[in-house]
Every structure is written in structure tokens, then in C-alpha cells.
Write a structure and sequence with these properties.
Calcium-transporting ATPase, cytoplasmic transduction domain A, elongated, Calcium-transporting ATPase, cytoplasmic domain N, 27 helices, 22 strands, Rossmann fold, 16% strand
Amino acid sequence: MDEKRDRLKESSHQLAVSCALCAVCLLGHVSHIFAAKPPWIHVFHSVGFHVSLSLFTLLGPGRQLILDGVKSLSKGAPNMNTLVGLGALSSFAVSSLAALIPKLGWKAFFEEPIMLIAFVLLGRNLEQRAKIKATSDMTGLLSVLPTKARLLVNGDAKDLGSIVEVPCSSLSVGDKIVVLPGDRVPADGTVTAGRSTIDESSFTGEPLPVTKLPGSQVSAGSINLNGTLTIEIKRPGGETAMGDIVRLVEEAQSREAPVQRLADKVSGHFTYGVMTISAATFVFWSMFGTRILPAALNQGNPISLALQLSCSVLVVACPCALGLATPTAVLVGTSLGATRGLLLRGGNVLEKFSMVNSVVFDKTGTLTIGRPAVTKVVPLGGMKITDSQLNPDAMLSEVELLKLAAGVESNTIHPVGKAIVEAAQAAGCQNVKVTDGTFMEEPGSGAVATIENKVVSIGTLDWIQRHGVDEKPFQEVEDLKNQSVVYVGVDNTLAGLIYFEDQIREDARQVVESLSCEGINVYMLSGDKKSTAEHVASLVGIPKEKVLSGVKPDEKKRFISELQKDQSIVAMVGDGINDAGALAESHVGVAMGGGVGAASEVSSIVLMGNRLSQVLDALELSRLTMKTVKQNLWWAFAYNIVGIPIAAGMLLPVNGTILTPSIAGALMGLSSIGVMTNSLLLRFKFSLKQKKVYGASPNTKIDVDSVLLYQKEKTKQPYSDSRWGEV
């Protein structure tokens, strides 16, 4: 990345110098046209000054470009730089001869190499900026790893004096480390002592922590929540699971993306063709032209005329319009995406996304919110409230049960506990305090505390039974197998159950339906169990046969590869580190803006608004951008088809018109301006397209959320999203 940024910096410097030289050259022409009187200003349009500017341009900003073109030609693989180099060098050579030997009667056009190099460098700079955005570094991926670890020197975890902090890079297999609550695990290993719950959501994508006991495996980068663990190192440094994910990403990014641009596909043939036409133009006008058309001698010496026309062919065909066709449209498309909360990394991304026929969604954090939420509170009918402030015969309500559970869970950092506290706040429950010194938590089991002289335990059935509840759970009336549950015990009574699950995003079903209606295959991957994954898929409209559950990061990447073998253009939508390999492997990786930074780093598109509906926005924008690119390319080729014959002197026999290299350069500039103007109209086209598609009236601002709202009203489905578009 540093090397690419250095190259971009160098390119920007060269472009700035070239544009400055071009501006000085144009100043001289303008002063000459308007007959400026100050004597010093005449220096700017003198031959000697133009020679100096042209020579400085060729040896300075244009040197790399010309050398690359000459090397490519010598290897038998001419490219666009070859045309630029030949056009610039021939213009300078002919102009130098004309200046040194005035008797030849040739015309000098030293300004051609200056303007030529400036236009080409502008296109290349825009292209480099687009490409550097398309490549991510690994800093976000590696930022989840701690830099230091607590090394246990003598193997006795009880003796704090035996624990020293060391750099993680110095750890080796067999070392024992201590991980305190709130710390990230510094290396892969096996738990040898302690009990805790570990948040592995950055790897597995699942929101619920996993209980770790002696003998359990832990991965570097996962978060230790509420217990102290002693871990024996099995895979340190770059050998960790995180290192494997980094290698998956690098492997996917190192493959060169297939070049789709028409200009690049035909560049070799185009270059040979232009060189051939230029040579034929010189031969014709130097040997036969003036004999067939004596009037052509009015244009000057036959050799001078032939050189001028052949240079004009090279100059007029210089691929500025071809070079700018894609970068300018991409620049406008990406900036337009940014205003819509879409981070788009380059033209190849837009090109690929416009052709996508398969979209793969991660489950947790993508189709779902990514954190547990309380869905149902079920109090037991036989539990009475004994609070003196209330009716002694009143039954324990859902709110009361939630209030007691939240009182206990307010002392924990467990995601389920946070979900219960949030649900209690949403229900308007009063805050209740735990009696000092009574709170106790066991990782993976539950928590217990005394509240208002009641012993309230919450967690697994085994946990509440260990704290005085000897009843068997009642027969559940509803089938909630796809949800998780915690038991709540008050004193010696089973008070009730609290169900929770990872909630579906409000716009998930509409996005899946819209993609399916366009003929795009939609799949879902999940590290969760099969029943939960299929339950979520059924809610959003994805068939069971297109659901893959219990998959690890490398299996996600392998699934993407298998889809690509079937000639599918695959987009992967995810949010976590566990998705990084699959996001990088896919043709287009789409990351949710609220996900882990590593996913954003390796993705081609980042949904900064953290809304799935932005996938539809990005799809429409990419299609329209590529349509603009194709229009630009057709314009560039049409310009060359018309411009090259005129530059070769086709109109000379008809009306005596020829294109001097200066006029040819001006036309080349106009073709580039036409391309850029069409690209700038993309913003208007995108707004107009949405109005036509969704039937909006003029002067209506509309976004995808508004469209989803309209669809829900049309299908009589409830709409609970508070994000309304301005209609």
C-alpha cells in the first residue's frame, strides 16, 4: 500500500508539473491572439521558449510514459503509451527540424507534446486513484490482535508475581498465558485452568458468547468476557486462525482481476492500426498525394505536409478519450455513491457488480441485527408477588419478571444480560438495585443476586436449580425451538422464562425479494446451527436448499469459489472477520458499515448507512455507471473512426481542409471534454432513473427506503422502519 501511495504521489506531482507547463504554453498563445503589448509577454510565444517547454515536458513528466511505450513496442506488444510516445516524439522531431532548418518550409508545433502529455497524465492519475481505492490493506484486520500478553513464568496462576507482560510476537508453542476479563486472547491455544465465556463473534459471526472450560480451544482476537483463563499456546503469531484469514484475503486479492474495458482489449490492435495508418499517410502524401493533387502543394513542402499529416494521425488518435472513458464515469459514480452512503472502491467493482447474478448473504449481523434481543417473556401462573406495596394476591406479570431479571443482569457484560436490560428499559421498568455483596456470576451458567429480599437467579435450568429452585419446567405452550431461553428463579420458585433471538433486519425480506425478482440467485451462509439458519432464511424468503449452516471462514470462501466455477458473478454481503476471506474471494465483496473494520477493509463496497436496502441502491448505480462507460467508449471510438481519416487528409481533395497537429490536439481535447461531460450527467441520470422506475413525480427526492415503504403498503404488509425518505 505504501508503494502504491508513493506511485500515486509521484503521478500527482508529474500531473501538476505538466498542467503548469500546459498553462504557460496556453498563456503564450492567448497573449499572441490578443496582441498583448508588454514586450516581456512575447517571450511566452517565442519558438525558443516553446522548445524549452516541450523538451522539459518530454524529459520530465512524460519520460516514464514515453519509455514504457518504447519498451512495449520493442517487445512486440505496443500499448496506449506507444501511441502517446510516438505522437509526442514525432511532433517534437518534426518541429525541431522545422525550427533548425527554416528553408524546409515545415511548420513547428512544439505545443503538441506539452498538451498531449498533460491530457494523458490526467487520465492516468484518475485511473490510479480508482485502483488504489480498490485495494485494501490488512491494518483493520490485524487491529483486533493485542500487542502484549501476560506470560505465566513458573506455571502457577495464583502467584501474580510470576506473570510478566511480553510482546505477543515473542510467544512460542507451549507457553502459558493468563487472560483477564475484558482482554483479547493474544494467540490460539487450549484452556488449562479457569472458566469464562468468550465472545467469538468476530470469527464465527454468531452473537452469543461460548463457555470455555479446561480443554476448550480459544482463538486469537476473541474477547474474554467474565472469567480469568490460563491458556497454553498452540499457534502463535502468524500461525493463528487470524493469520489464516489474512492469508485467505491476500490470496484472493493477489489474483489479477479480469480486465473488462473495451479500450484495453483492443489496445494492441488499435495501436498497430494507428501506426500503420500514420505510415501510410506519410507515404501517400510524400510520394503520390501532390502528384495526384497539385493543389496540395499550396500547403507547403510535400515532405512537410506528409510529416504534418502523419503526426496529426498519431495525435488525433491518442487515446485520451479512451483512457478517460472509464475513470471519469467511475469517479462520478463513486462520489454519487458516497452521497448515498456507499463506499465504492473503483471501476472494476462497479463493472462486476452490474453483472452480478448471485448474491450470498451472511446471516448474523447482515440479514439479522447481530445481537440478541428479548422476544418473549413468559411468567409462571403460580408465582405470586409478595411485595407489600402491591396486592398480595397479584400474579407476577411480565413487567415484574423483566424488572427482577434486569436488576440482576445490570451487573454483567454478557450480551444476553444487556438484551434483558434493554428490554426492561423499553418496557418502562423501574430500576432495582442488587443488595451489596450478593451478586455472583458463573461464566456459561448464569448469575444470582438478592433484590428486595428475594433471591433472584437467572441462567440455565441447572443454575437456578443449584440456587434453590427444585421445580421442573412447565410444559411450553408455544413452539419456540428456534429461539434461546433463560430461566428465572425467585427464591425457591421457577418464576418464568425469557426468550431471545437475533432479530431480522426490517428491510431484509424486501431486499431478498427485489433481488429474486430481477433473476438474481440469493444464498445464505451461517456458522449457526441448521434449525436457526433455516428459520431465519424462511423469514427473509430464501429457500432451504440455498442455505448453508455451520460453516467456518474457509468453508465460506470455498462455497464462493464453487459458485464462481459455475460461471456465476458472485457478490458476498457480510459484516465480520469470519466473512473476510469470502468477501475477498467473491467478485464483489459488500460489507455492512456497522460491522467489524476488517470486513470493510477487504470489501469492494461498504454500506456506510448499515442498511441492506443500500445493496439495491448500489446495484442500480453500478448498472447506470457501466452504461455511461459504454457510451463514453462508443463516443471515443466513433471519434477516432471519423477523426483519423480527416487527420490523414481525406478532406484535402474535397475542400482543401487539413488538420494540423494543433487542431488535432484540440479535437482530442474536445473528445475528452465530451466524455467527461457525459460522465458528469450521471448524477442527473441516476435521479431520473429512480423517478421513472418508481413512478415519482418531478422534483421528488426518493430513496430505497421510500420504495420499500411503498412496496409494503402495496402488499399490505406492516412497515416498522422509522427511516422515511423525503417524498
